[in-house]
From TrEMBL:
It comes from Fragilariopsis cylindrus CCMP1102. It is an enzyme of class 2 (transferase). This is Nucleoside diphosphate kinase. It catalyses: a 2'-deoxyribonucleoside 5'-diphosphate + ATP = a 2'-deoxyribonucleoside 5'-triphosphate + ADP. Residues 1-137 form the Nucleoside diphosphate kinase-like domain. One of its GO terms (molecular function) is nucleoside diphosphate kinase activity.
Length: 148
């Protein structure tokens, strides 16, 4: 089954939104297979956002992302990558639909509270980076009701 890397950014953790975001993924039907609260190093964060290294906002992004703990998670389920991105909403909160996490809970792109992998390939790369120890395999007792 597909897995995606979802991260609650330092502003999301500081604003007490961790439970709300976890709740949405749990209630959708996705399965939490890894989770930890960690304060990422500058090097780790630069590696995570390496594709944005030449952007003007990159130094600010790294400073923001290393300012406090993040909640790193892996969620598993059918189409978890694409559906996870839909649940987070558009990158720019001004474009995020109401009902999405960003649409409901934030205002500025530089403080958009959550991250989600943008493709299966990047999800696998990010999961390996954040959880080199691997994930926890288990069966949700409602899987027979979630999938036909
Ligand atoms: P992530 O899930 O965090 O990877 O966001 P994304 O995939 O929706 O967007 P992208 O990977 O292009 O950008 C990564 C992060 O950089 C965004 O979530 C924002 O936090 C930040 N970012 C992107 N564009 C801007 C910008 O124009 N200004 C600022 N200040 N931050 C930006
Ligand atoms: Mg991205």
């Amino acid at each position: 089954m597909e897995r995606t890397y979802i991260m609650i950014k330092p502003d999301g953790v500081q604003r007490g939104l961790t439970g709300e975001i976890i709740k949405r993924f749990e209630q959708k039907g996705y399965k939490l297979v890894a989770m930890k609260l960690t304060k990422p190093s500058k090097e780790h964060m630069e590696k995570h956002y390496a594709d944005l290294a030449n952007k003007k906002f990159f130094p600010g992004l790294i400073e923001y992302m290393t300012s406090g703990p993040v909640c790193a998670m892996v969620w598993e389920g059918k189409n978890a990558v694409l559906e996870g991105r839909k649940m987070l909403g558009a990158t720019m909160p001004s474009d995020s639909a109401m009902g999405t996490i960003r649409g409901d809970f934030c205002i500025e792109v530089g403080r958009n509270i959550c991250h989600g992998s943008d493709a299966v390939e990047s999800a696998n790369h990010e999961i390996g980076m954040w959880f080199p120890e691997g994930v926890c395999e288990w069966t949700r007792c409602d899987e027979k009701s979630l999938y036909e």
